Amino acid sequence: MLRTRLSNVGLWRSYYTSSLSRVPRAPPDKVLGLSEHFKREKSAKKIDLTVGIYKDAWGKVTTFPSVVKAQKLIESHLELNNNLSYLPITGTKEFQENVLNFLFRESCPQFGPFYLAHDRVSFVQTLSGTGALAVAAKFLALFISKDIWIPDPSWANHKNIFQNNGFENIHRYSYYKDGQVDIDGWIEQLKTFAYTRQSENNKNPPCIILHACCHNPTGLDPTKEQWKKIIDTIYDLKMVPIVDMAYQGLESGDMLRDAYLMRLCLDVEKYPNWSNGLFLCQSFAKNMGLYGERVGSLSVVTPATTNNRNSNLPQQINPLQQNIDSQLKKIVRGMYSSPPGYGSRVVNVVLSNAKLKQQWFKDVDFMVQRLHYVRKEMFDRLGWPALINFAQQHGMFYYTKFSPKQVDTLRNQYFVYLTGDGRLSLSGVNDSNIDYLCEALEAVSKMSELA
Ligand SMILES: Cc1ncc(COP(=O)(O)O)c(C=O)c1O
């Protein structure tokens, strides 16, 4: 009897061991995996142009002057600093008020306040932009849709986040063609899909990711006119927009101006009711340099209900928003319980202090001016016109369109690291490496002409 039991335990153990041993190796992260490789690179000539982190003219990751001042204020005010307790599940009231004020009143002054006044924005303080996307994905997959359209190309993590959080169908829309935004291909694909869905009587609304500005990896954004065409289409097809605003300020250096896509989507005269909501995922990683502090937000703009539709009077209670709030809270509680405190305190100090906010706007503009300088200097050496197409090329990234073989050659022969899709982070370029870098880029670009 005892022997049988023991042998059962043995069987049981081997069953578990073999289950774990069946776990396949996941591929290394396309960006962070390369950084690890770079650290091990021995050549003194090595240049890391992989990660989207701003570095100054000396190649250093710096803290913005506005953030340094905010940190000092936090250090010197015990009441700001001495509470290490848990934050509420969806963040503090103060953070919510500061960020909503910044996003919906200052960045979208014409229509943003209307949504706030009608209690039509559900809000969560998130683990930066990635966390905002993950919470949005979980919510959408549970209640709205398991279909998502992602640009091709896009930030590699988009697919990963939506797949990990319950999305079953990942579609790619053509974004980039011959150095231009493929506006016609993009719209055509969405319409064809919608007609097929209609003929199948499938009423699930698909979601769509829109990069608000500084598209990653191409750096190429639609013009305002192109955005209008796209948003008209998305609205007519009743799709659910997920606006990914990871780089507000890095397009023009003007924080408020860069919220153009949000201003357009919130235009109640053009788009009176996003029937399945509009999801804004926002990050302070890049525009406040708070990368590791993981601070950002998710705002869900809810549709008008019979309660608040056609009314200009603020409603005291919007039950739809309350239901959505409650579900977002439940999702966060099960995912990571509550957000971290320090980064959000820095954001609170910067956003609530007029002088610091002004300094922050200047800091962002300074960063963008340096990126423009790098583009011009590279253009002088390489003569590649897209580098200085300032009307449409924005942000930290330049898309070389190099093949994987060219990217490998750059890495193996010249010790210059780009991401596998040929994306180059301009902030890693400075006066001490620009000549060598441009020689390497030129040599590798010619390699393709001979091939
Ligand atoms: C397009 C895009 N969305 C979202 C993010 C999220 O960044 P984080 O989670 O650091 O805020 C990034 C970061 O690189 C990005 O490029």
UniProtKB/TrEMBL annotation:
Residues 45-441 form the Aminotransferase class I/classII large domain. The keyword Transcription regulation does not apply. The keyword Transferase applies. It catalyses: L-aspartate + 2-oxoglutarate = oxaloacetate + L-glutamate. It is an enzyme of class 2 (transferase). One of its GO terms (molecular function) is L-aspartate:2-oxoglutarate aminotransferase activity. Its EC number is 2.6.1.1. One of its GO terms (cellular component) is mitochondrion. GO terms for biological process: L-aspartate catabolic process. InterPro entries: Aminotransferase_I/II_large, Asp_trans, NHTrfase_class1_PyrdxlP-BS, PyrdxlP-dep_Trfase, PyrdxlP-dep_Trfase_major, PyrdxlP-dep_Trfase_small. Keywords: Aminotransferase, Pyridoxal phosphate, Transferase. Its cofactor is pyridoxal 5'-phosphate. Homodimer. In eukaryotes there are cytoplasmic, mitochondrial and chloroplastic isozymes. Belongs to the class-I pyridoxal-phosphate-dependent aminotransferase family. This is Aspartate aminotransferase.
